[in-house]
Amino acid sequence: MRDFAEKWTPVPDWEKQKIEAAGFSVHRLFGLHQTLISAATGLDPVKNKPIGWGPIAKGNDYAIQISRDRILQVSDKPTKQPFGWQMKGFATSCANDLYAVFEISGKDCNQVFARASTLNWRGESKSASMQFSKLNALVYRHGEENKLRVHIDSPYATYFWTWLEQINLN
User: Fewer CB near the last or first residue (10 Å), C or N of the chain?
Assistant: First the structure.
């Protein structure tokens, strides 16, 4: 019987993994509660204005604009709102396992961004959704100019990590 697992890169022990390269570092974040809000067109389902690419998300409770009618609420605390259809006309779903979240920081964070995306580092977009290292991702600044948070579909986390390990900024 063939062992198909030998074809795949082993999943790293995420708690112990960290990339420390010249000019940037990367680690996976845990403990964030992610709530997907759908059909939110013209409504105000979150207390914070959703951000896209460009503005800096601050604090531990913020919203990311995915598309015209989709928002990802990110918090360090679980939402008090029940999941499902809301009477105000939108739906909420638990997305904790949907996205793996990575934080990239350092003085050369912009160089990592340039390798991963075709967007302008100084540009702005209403949506944080973009192609990043050939993957669909949500990318935004958090806390400061040179700190990115990248939400990748969880099944692609190992690919993304391998891609990051192979970056050579020289």
Answer: N
